Every structure is written in structure tokens, then in C-alpha cells.
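Write out this protein's structure.
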Amino acid sequence: MQADKRPSGPSRMRAADRTSYDVDCLIVGGGHCGLSVAAALKERGIDTIILEKNAAIGDQWRERYERLHLHHITDAMHLPGVRYPKHVPRYPSRLDLADYLAGYAQIHDLDVRRNHRVERLGVDEGGMWRAVVDDGAGERVFTACHVVIAAGSTGVTPFIPAIEGRDEWDGEVRHSVEYTNADGFDDERVLIVGSGNSAVEIACDLYDHGAKPAMLIRSPNSWITREAFAIYHRLLLIGGKILTYVPFAWLFAPLVLLILDRYLKHEVRQRYGDLRSKGVIPHATPPMRRMAETAARKPPVYIDGTWGDVGTSVFDLIREGEVVVYTSEIDRLVPASNTVVFQDGSRTDFDFVLLCTGFEPIAKHYATFIDRPVLAKLGRPGVFKIGDEIDGIPGLWLSLGGLSSTRFSQQVLAERIAAKIQDRPAPRRILSGATAFFFAGIDPGAFQIKKRAIVINAIATIALVGWLAAALIG
């Protein structure tokens, strides 16, 4: 692909009716990853357009259930260069985050094409990336040297397991994506299937509004509190300077994180006691290590109040018997009744079964718009290298990561894309693996040690070796 040789510049119209555009880089998705990498590319002089399917930036958060609050403190969740407004609480709501993302795009004057749903994405005969977009009024075509897919990492299509007897059951089965608030659930018996963060928060919401929630927790999980995990984010805030200016700090960083990981697990047990008899089984692997080993597919679940120490805690409800935990899978729903039969033979009546069972793999969403030849290459094992160009697919990049890691990882991603376009050397990776994960979120390869830190450590090492040699000779 000869894309990298074309100079950057303002968006170029390829048709008088403005149905075709040519840019340096297209970004599919206007969430926090897409916005942050677009801002970083703009700082580097790269012409970029974001294709966002929603009517407004942040709509993917506005459309979530009303109680939703983020699990991390605002100091750890802002994107590069723009902090949250002072009125935003310590743990932002979904609306706070949505408005923040919209403001971020406005502050950076990003070229976001809203209501632009990508229908097809592939490579044309000339080696350029070609995106066919539906904007509601017709079809538009965008071509670019490079494409960044920032269309999510956890899937879009709800995963709905098959349950025998569902169609004839007198109760109602819903997925959590259909849950907005507790209206209509007053005094209703609700079985929540799942133990992730949505399941926990919805259970508390239902209880607070007069429903009778129960939970089906099918396997051990990693449980932590927001307030304890805030320690990790504070370490992130000060860790960069310590690692840069304090010689040999890298030697102690893994130990600090190991201690913190064990503290997170211990703090839950100390605060809530042992709830194994209630059906709550902690995972044997410490939470942060488990998240690292599973590439963030198994993140910890926050079980204190919705606003940290404020609000209902699901573990308090379980400990006090207000929320009953079932541990056996659903066997079937009995037709013409409200009875749920579990695989261990027990049965209970419910009015609703609420499936907090997550989403189909993100690859299924990609398959809805990425051309088959590209998709076939993406399906190869080990092809995804976050922060790097996709192996064997020139000009294609993947942007993933949580809010706390985005301000680190997307800067590196943008620098690598800009280096390709501007025909200059890309920054090298220096640290990767589980240790880097703790500092860079789910993108361990994106973390880099600053040159200043390397120089300081090198000087300190030479000084230490010289001191030891003098001591031995003397």
C-alpha cells in the first residue's frame, strides 16, 4: 500500500456533490478511544475524520441504564489535556461522561461525522482504505491511508443464552440492555443472571425501588471496592514522576502492585466477612493479576456503594439476606407458571429473569461492516497487536482501552500512525507484559519508559557500579 507517501492536509473532496472524501486517517467510532487518538493525531498534523453512528457524541452512554456510575475517580478518567468540570462528582454518572466526551470533541475541534454508520470497510484496487457510509440521507464514501477501528471491545449484540420453556413461561425474560430503571418492578421478584458490574448495580437499583431481586452467581469472581481501587489510580497519577525521576523505581514497582493486589482482596473480606456460605465465592487469583492474565476479559466487580462509600452495597444486601444468591444454572422455565427450575433440582417463582450475560464477541460486530478478505486476516491467531499496525493488513489499527489507560495508550498509537504517514521512525517499545499492564490498562504494549528515566537510571547504575567497585578494591 502506497498510502504513507501521500502528504497530509485538509479534507479533500473527491466529488462536487460531497459524497466522497479523502483523508489521511479514518477513525471508526467516536467513543473515548476514537476521540483521544483523533486529538493526538490532530496535534501531530494528521488530517482525521471520525465516523460516529450515533446522533451525538456520548449517546452510547446516555442510552445506558439510569443508575449507571463509573467505577473510577474522575482524576483517573480524564482524556489527555482536558479534566472533568469541577461540578462533576468523584464517580461520574453516565450523563456526566457523555457530556464530557462531547465537550472534549468540541474543545479539540475534532471532525466528527455524526449519524454516519459504516456499512462496508475494505481496501480498494489502489490499496487505499474505503469506507462506505450511510448518513441517513444517502451513501457517502471515505478513503484514507489508515483506518483506526475504535468501535468498542466488548461487543454490541447482547448474548442471550437459550433457556428451555422461555416462550411459554408466564414471567418475562429480558436482557440488561433493555433495563432503564426500576419503574414497573415494584414488589416484583427478579432473578438477575450474572455477577458483573451491571448485575450488581441493577440489583441495588431494584432493591432501592421496592423490588425483590435475587442473583444467580455461577462461578467465583474477583470482588473489590471502588474506594480501595482508587489507591491504584492515585498511584498512576504520581507513579509517572516517581518512575521517571527516582533511580531504580522500576525494581520496586512490581512489588508495590503485588502488595496492592493482595490488599484489594483482603479489604473486601475484612469489610464484609466471608460470604461463601451465602454463595459468594472469591476467585483464587488476585483481581488485578487475573485482569492482566485475561487481557481484561475478567475485570473485577465493584461491590461497595454506587458512589464509593455512599449508596447501597450488594454485599451488605447479600450478607443481610435481602438478596438471595443461587449458584446452580437454570435448567428450565416451567410453562404456564412463574417457576424457575435450577439444575440442582431446586425451584423458585419469579416474575422476571434479567439476563446480565454480556455481549457476543466483538468480532461479530466487526463482521457486520468489514469486508470478508480483511475479516479473514483479522481472524488469524495473534494478529491483534494493540498499538501496532495489524500484521499483514497495512494501514489498519485497533484502538482499545479503558478510560484510565486511554491517555497513555492512545498517545502512543497516534505517534505510531503519524510516524507512518510522515515517513519517520516510530517509537520503540521498551516495556511490555503484566508489569506494564498495571500502568497502561489493557494495552500493555503501549507503555513506554521516557528517555529521561532511562538516562537517570543509567547514570545511577554507573554510579552504583563505580561505588561497589571502589568498595571492593578498597
